[in-house]
Please model this.
Amino acid sequence: MKKILLLEADYTQSLPTVKSLHKHGYVIDGVFSHKLSYGYGSRFFNKKFIFEDVSKHENYRDFLMTLLRNGEYSAIIPLSDQSAIVLSKYKDMFSKYTSFVLPSWDNFEHGYDKHKLMQECELGKFPHPKTVAVAGLALPLEKVKSLKFPVLIKPNFSNGARGITYVENIEELVDKFPSVYEEYGECHIQEFIPSGGAQVEFQLYINEKNELVQSSVIHKYRWYPNNGGSSCCNRSSENNQM
Model:
């Protein structure tokens, strides 16, 4: 029977994932940050491993390599950002022991770095919010003034809506920017797009041959926090045209 290892299985997405895999006859092990998590209590996990701080990438890499060398896993599935980052960074190393589908680190970083993603949109002439780059703490105020306030301070690297800060004027931007930078690192400034109606998200699963394996369309109706953040009420739909 094939074994699969789920990474960062603490969160709610692990529950339907492990249940479905179990239903299809797989043996599933999971890596958790602590026992008091959503996923740890699931009865569908065969073995449960604890690694407390996945942000320590080199230590996490070594921990996972130990599991893979001894576990004979057919596949490994990351369920959150830090695990995906580690698998992508050390893709050649992990690929010797198991299967997973992730782009190379260069390609991954261009999608994960929110500012680089905006640069790609600009080069490709795709519609996107107006964005101003910031190097360290040196706010380019003249360029920022070209944006219509309110604006958002957005960390280049974060998941969910963490660190995204809404500011209504230059004075508030100058006041709040240092604390956001101190906690999240490099940031950029982006025009604020007011919410209204539903947003539409497309998810594409592409294999290593660049073949489309699966896709989904999601309509988003509510966010938390209300003035811009992660979606908390969504509906999937079938829409081949989109």
